[in-house]
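Q: Here's a chain of 96 amino acids. Please give me its 3D structure as C-alpha cells.
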Amino acid sequence: MGILKKPLITEKFNRLSEKFNQFAFIVEKKASKPEIISEIEKIYSVNVIGISTMVYAGKVKSRSTKRGQFTGKRTAFKKAIVTLKEDQKIDFFQNV
C-alpha cells in the first residue's frame, strides 16, 4: 500500500458504513483526493462517489511519575472518509 496506511475500524465508522456506506482510512499526509480515490478504487475494486479529508496535528502529551515529568508528542496524520455507491461494500476482514 503506497498512499493508504490503514483502514480505521471503530464503532463510529462501523455505524457510518452501515447507514451511509462510508469508510475511513489513514492516508499519507501529502496525498491528494484524486490520488486517494484512484488507490481505493484500484485496491478494493469499488466506485468512490465522494471523499472528505482531515489533517490532524500531533498533540503534546505529558504525565507525571515518581521520576519526574515526561513529555512526548503524538504523530500527526491525515484521515480520509470515502463514500461508495449504494450497492458496493468494502470487507476489511475477508482474508482473516
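Q: Can you summarize the key feature?
A: The first helix runs from residue 11 to 19.
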